[in-house]
Amino acid sequence: MSEIIIRIMGETDIVDVTMQADATATSPLLDGYDEADRINLLGHWMDQGRGAALAEDAQHFAAMTIIASAFIAQQPLYKSLGSGANFMLLTLLREKWPVGSKAKFKIQADRVGAAHTYLAVPCGAVKIDDLADQNSRKDAETQQLAATLAFYKANRKRFANSSAVHGLIKQN
After folding, report:
1. CA atoms of 102 and 121, how far apart (whole Å)
2. Which tens digit of pLDDT belongs to each residue from 99-141?
3. Cα 74 off chain centre by
4. Which residues of 17-53 are buried (b: 16+ CB within 10 A; e: fewer)?
5. What would the pLDDT profile of 62-105 be if each residue is shown by its tens digit?
C-alpha cells in the first residue's frame, strides 16, 4: 500500500503522521495502556497546545503514529484506502461526562494524566494527488470535517461543552 497520511486533529493541535502498517510496533510511552487509554493519551497530547511540541520529540511522534495507525486500521473506513485514498482525518475531541458518571470518567482520564477523556472520530478518506502540498491537505481536512458535520450535530451531547466541536457546529 502506498503512503497514507493521517491528520490527527485534537482540540487545539494538528499533527500529520504516516500510517504504519506494522501492527506490532511499540513504544515505551504506551506500555501498560489499553486502546481506550491510548486514545485518551493521544487526545490529551493534542489538547491545550501540547501536540506540536510533543510531535517534535521522536518518541512522542512515534507513539502518536502507533496510536493513530492502530485505531484507523480497525475502522471500516480503512477498507476505502484500497480505492486509492491516501489522506484521512482523525479527530480527538473532549468527551462529556454524564451526571452521575463523573467518577468513572475521571478514573479513565487520571490513568493517562489527563483532565478529560476523548472521543476519536475518523472523518473520512480522500485521495490527494500531491501529499506534500499543505493546501491540498487543508482542503481535504475541510471537506472531511464538512462531511462529518452531520455526525457531530447528531452526537453533540457526547462532546464536552468546552469541546471545539460546538464552535464548528455553530459556524455551520
Report:
1. 22
2. 888 999 999 999 999 999 999 999 988 999 999 999 999 999 9
3. 13
4. bebbeeeeeebebbeebeeebbbbbbbbbbbeeebee
5. 999 999 999 999 988 787 666 788 999 999 999 999 888 899 99
